[in-house]
Design a protein that fits this description.
With 103 residues, this protein is α+β, with helices and mostly antiparallel strands. The protein has one domain. Strands 1, 2, 3, 4, 5 and 6 form a six-stranded antiparallel sheet that branches. The chain is globular, with a radius of gyration of 14 Å. The C terminus is likely disordered.
């Protein structure tokens, strides 16, 4: 069975945040029910590779606060490469039903 190609930072499509016209955000959901929400404080420009991002893990399109996950669920000041690394870790998570207190 062929392994599916993992999504990376380059697959994110940034749009203006509903919370601030200065911020942009991207959301991506994966087949395992988890996803990521990535935001920046300035408009992303590929010619500005030093721009940093915040990334949060989501589950079923809600912020994920599961204490049992083996990865960081919120990280700030990430490079595009670090965002990709977290995205890959999220895609490798097994789908677990929400437990009481993990919402």
């Amino acid at each position: 069975m062929e392994k599916k190609k993992q999504k990376t930072f380059d697959d994110l499509e940034f749009t203006t945040s509903p919370f601030s016209e200065r911020d942009e955000q991207a959301k991506l959901e994966f087949e395992n029910g988890y996803g990521v929400r990535v935001t920046n404080c300035d408009t992303y420009n590929p010619e500005e590779p030093d721009l940093l991002f915040r990334i949060a893990v989501t589950k079923d399109d809600r912020m994920c606060w599961e204490k049992s996950l083996p990865i960081v669920t919120i990280a700030g000041e990430c490079s595009p490469e670090q965002v990709t690394e977290i995205m890959k870790q999220v895609q490798e998570l097994k789908r677990n039903p929400l437990k009481e207190g993990d919402k």
